[in-house]
Structures are given as C-alpha cells and as structure tokens.
Design brief:
Blueprint: H1 3-12, H2 25-35, H3 39-66, H4 68-128, H5 130-137, H6 139-148, H7 152-168, H8 173-196, H9 203-216, H10 221-241, H11 248-273, E1 281-283, E2 288-290, H12 291-313, H13 321-333, H14 342-374, H15 405-422, H16 430-455, H17 461-489, H18 492-499, H19 503-508, H20 516-520, H21 539-545, H22 556-560
Antiparallel strand pairs: 1-2
Length: about 575
C-alpha cells in the first residue's frame, strides 16, 4: 500500500475501518475516485455523501414501509432456515455416529446375502428334484391311505422302509419328521387291528390280524395273547348284552346258546393262532408267567360271567328242565377243551329249585292260614260224603279232605309245587324238599291246635266229632298222601341205590320220609289212641306213576262250597 493511500485513509477514517474493506472493489474504486478529486470537489464531497446518505436512508425507510411484510416473512424464513440448519447439523452428527454401526450391518448383510445365495442355489436344486421330494413327503399320507383301505401288508413294508431311511440318514431332519408321522399312523393301525378283534371273525381273519400284530412287534407273545383274549372277551360280552331281557326264558336260552358257540369258537381260534399252547414258562427278572394259566383264568372268568347271568335269570324262570339240559350240554361240550364246569351248575340249580319250592310252600301256608281263620267247627253237622271211601285209583286224594276245604286247598298247592318239581327233581334237593314239607305240616298242626284252643269251649258233640275227623284227616290222610307223592317223585329204591344203602336203612334214617311223629306232636293229645300201621309201598307202582303227571283232583266248586255238605 502506498504512502499516499495510507494518508488518505487516515484522513478519511481517523478511527480506523474494517480490514475486510481492503478486499472490496467498490472501496478501492471510491478511494481512486477521491484521490482524483480537486479541492473544490473534496470540499463538496462530505455534503454529497451526507445527501446520498439521507437519500439512501429515505429510500430505505420507504422500502421498509412498502415491503415490511416481505421483510417479516424473510425474517421468519431466515429463522426457520436457521432452525433447519441446526436440525440438519444434529442429524449429521447422528449420522456420523451411526456410520460405524451401519458399516457393521453392511458387512453382516454381505455375509447373509452370501448364505441367501447358497439357499437360492439349494432351492433351485430342490425345484429340479421336486417330483422325488414329493414322493418322500407324501409317505405319511400314503401310510394313512394304506391303513384306511386296510392294506396292512403294504403299510408294514412302508413303515420298515421309512425306518431304514431314518437310520441311514440320521442327520436329515425331514426323515425324522416323516418317521414321527409314520409312527403316529403305526399306532392308529394298531388300534384298528385291536378293534377288529372285537368283531365277529373267522379263523383265517384271526390268523391274519394276529400275524400283523406279531410283525408290528409292539407286544410280547404273552401280551399279545392277553390282548387277543381281552378283545374277544369284550366282543362276547357285547353279543350277550344285545340279547333283549323282556322275556327271561328267551334271554337265558339265547345267552346259553351264544356263550356256548362263541366261547368255543374263541377257544378254537386261540389254539389255532397260538399253537404253542403247551405249558411254557417265560422267565423275567423277578417272576415267571405260565401262559396256560392266563388262558384258563380267562376262560374261568367268562364261565363265571355266564353263571352269574344264569343265577339271576333262573329267579324268573318257571320251567328249568330245558334250561338245565342246555346248561349240562354246554358244560359237557367244554369237557373237550378241558373246561367241564358242570359241577358248578349243580349248586345254582339246586339252590334255585329249593328256593322256588320253599316259596311255593310258603304261599300254601299263608293261604291255609287265611282259610283256617275263616273256618269254624261250631254248629258243624255230619257230612254227606262217605268217610274213608276208596276208589280204584290208590293215588287219588282222599275224599275226606272235601269236608275240610283248608286242608284240601293246601294239598292242591303242595301237589302243584310237586308237579313243577317232578320234571326237574335232582337227588340233591330231596331232603330240602322233605324238610320244607315237614315244616309246613308242623305249622298246620299248630294252626289246628290254635283252632281248638279258640273254639273248643263252644263245641257241640257234632263239632267235637268234626274236629276229631279233621285231626284224623290231617294225620291219617293228608300226611301219608303227601308222603306217597314224595316217593312217586323220588322212588325209595332209586334213592337207596343212589346212596348205596338198603331200603331199611333209608327208612330208619328218615331219608325221603316225613317224620310223622314230629309233625303230629302238637296235636297228639287230641288224637284218638290207635296202633300206627306200617307203611307198605309198592315200588313197581311208584315207578309206573313217576311218568304220569300229578294233577289236582279237587274241583274248586267243592272246595269253595263246603257248607253245602
């Protein structure tokens, strides 16, 4: 800078000026212009500058007044620009801070994209092998189709194939998944096979189903036998449960038939399917299992079920002869397989026969008690019937009973009970029958004694004779007549032969004989003294009459109208 320029600047700006003016072209031009002024121009220059300053100030004011809205908007815009620039600065700082992390993510993306490329190549390969993969993936569906169509042979082969694949390629996850689905279908097939064992099956079908179960290798041989017996037993119970119970005779007869046929078929199938029926011991860690014991225990349970049904239905059966024949044939047929259960039938039938006979005799006693309450000997006259008349038929009930209708009706009930017993009369119930009749006769004797104690003070001579005839009719006619019919059903010769004793011992031991002395003991002091005759019984006559039916020989009109006599 020249000396003149510096002097000029000091004169113009004694207080100094901003240093950046030196670089402004307008400032330099003005200095050059002032340097060329004359003195007069320099004197006028301050005034001109003042005037220019005032003009500029006025123009500025006028411009501010005229464009104040623009200035305000410009100020607001400048303020917003400033805030935006600050925000941009903050965002840029954040961006600078996030650039390292972004770089890391970029590297990760590069690595993942490389694996994606590998997967893409794998998918391309999968697409080219699509048909083969579909065949593998559809193996579980194919297994289910085989099972639904009961193509168990193909299902077994397919399951074995999948297992081989899983063993050969243990690291391939898809094979393990397919194997799990196959195992689920495997147990479904097992369930279906066990359900088929609960249906009516022929022997070839049983052999086929058990063959499949053996190949599945789910059960041991003992467990397979148990499952077979359980399933067939369930089917047998269903067959019996479907028999209607409205008619007990039909229900029991049908139960016997179904149980005999189906149980025999099950045993036959079992022995054919499990040919090693001989006693085989399977030793385990702690105990041994006898396979034969399992089989016969199952048969025992089924027979027990049948006997429980038999015992329940017999309570409602009127005639047991045909039922007993069927049951005995049932037990006899099972002797072929070593399961003769006829001895178990004996106590059931004998108990039922005894209970039925006792109930019938109890009803006869109740009926006699009602009749004897209405019966009286007061004002009793002589009957019009002949006393102790005999007919050609020695087994015809004594006519003397017509005079005393309570005894006649009682005898009718007894004969009816003996008639029902005659068709099915085992020796095992003989003494029960005799004891029941004896208790009943003792009850009648006590009832007659009670009648005497109530009315003997009012007896006339005719009434006393009538009561004596009543006692003699009971002692000499009713008791021997009942004894006679007992021996028709149970001939003493047959009883003695069955027991292995003679007739004299049979009579001495009171086997099949009523104890007349015990029966008439309550009224013995009221009976006239006499010598007791020895009972002679024609065995040939008893054997002949055993084939005939014991009929009720009293008409109801005679019993209901005793007063007319």
């Amino acid at each position: 800078m020249s000396v003149e320029r510096e002097k000029l600047l000091n004169l113009l700006f004694p207080n100094g000026y901003p240093s950046d003016w030196d670089y402004k072209s307008s400032f330099n031009e003005y200095l050059n212009k002032v340097g060329n002024y004359k003195v007069e121009d320099l004197v006028k220059e301050p005034q001109r500058l003042t005037k220019d300053s005032n003009d500029i100030h006025d123009q500025t004011q006028e411009l501010a007044v005229t464009n104040y809205k623009t200035f305000i908007e410009t100020a607001q815009c400048s303020k917003q620009l400033s805030s935006h620039f600050n925000l941009i600065e903050v965002k840029l700082n954040e961006l600078l801070n996030n650039i390292p992390a972004f770089e890391i993510h970029c590297h990760s993306f590069t690595e993942s994209s490389s694996s994606i490329n590998n997967l893409r190549r794998l998918n391309s390969l999968t697409l080219t092998k699509n048909s083969q993969l579909l065949e593998v993936l559809e193996l579980p569906q194919l297994m289910n189709s085989f099972i639904d169509d009961k193509m168990y042979e193909d299902a077994l082969e397919l399951a074995a194939y999948v297992r081989r694949l899983a063993v050969k390629f243990p690291d391939v996850a898809i094979f393990n998944t397919i194997l799990e689905d196959i195992e689920d279908a495997w147990f479904l097939m097992l369930h279906q096979l066990l359900l088929q064992l609960r249906q009516d099956l022929t022997l070839p079908k049983c052999l086929e189903i058990v063959g499949y179960l053996r190949r599945m290798d789910v059960f041991t041989e003992v467990e397979l036998k148990l499952k077979f017996l359980q399933a067939r037993g369930s089917w047998l119970q269903q067959c019996v449960a479907y028999i209607p119970t409205d008619d007990r005779n039909h229900h029991l007869a049908k139960t016997i038939e179904l149980t005999r046929v189906n149980l025999f078929n099950i045993i036959t199938h079992y022995r054919a399917v499990f040919a090693d029926i001989s006693v085989t011991q399977i030793n385990s860690a702690k105990h041994s299992v006898n396979e034969n014991l399992v089989f016969y225990s199952w048969i025992h349970d089924r027979i027990e079920d049948f006997l429980s049904i038999l015992q329940e239905d017999l309570k409602y059966i009127s005639s047991m002869e045909s039922i007993m024949d069927q049951c005995m044939y049932f037990g006899l047929s099972f002797s072929k397989v070593g399961c003769d259960f006829r001895p178990l039938l004996v106590p059931i039938f004998t108990t039922q026969l005894t209970e039925k006979f006792n109930n019938s005799i109890s009803k006869a006693m109740i009926n006699f008690e009602k009749n004897i309450e209405k019966f009286t000997l007061i004002n009793k006259t002589l009957p019009n019937i002949p006393w102790k008349s005999r007919m050609d038929d020695p087994f015809h009930p004594p006519d003397s009973l017509l005079e005393f209708y309570p005894l006649g009706e009682y005898l009718n009930h007894v004969l009816k009970s003996l008639n029902e017993l005659r068709l099915c009369a085992p020796f095992a119930v003989l003494m029960d029958i005799v004891n029941s009749l004896q208790r009943s006769l003792i009850f009648i004797a006590k009832s007659l004694l009670e009648l005497y104690s109530q009315e003997h003070l009012a007896f006339s001579s005719y009434s006393k004779d009538a009561f004596t005839r009543l006692l003699m009719c009971f002692s000499d006619d009713l008791i021997p007549h009942i004894q006679k019919y007992i021996h028709i059903i149970y001939p003493p010769s047959q009883v003695a032969s069955h027991l292995g004793i003679n007739l004299q011992t049979l009579q001495q031991e009171k086997i099949s004989f009523l104890n007349k002395e015990l029966i008439i003991d309550p009224i013995k002091h009221l009976l006239p003294q006499k010598i007791e005759p020895i009972l002679n019984f024609d065995e040939n006559m008893a054997s002949t009459l055993k084939q005939e039916s014991i009929s009720d020989n009293f008409s109801q009109q005679e019993l209901e109208n005793p007063s007319k006599e």
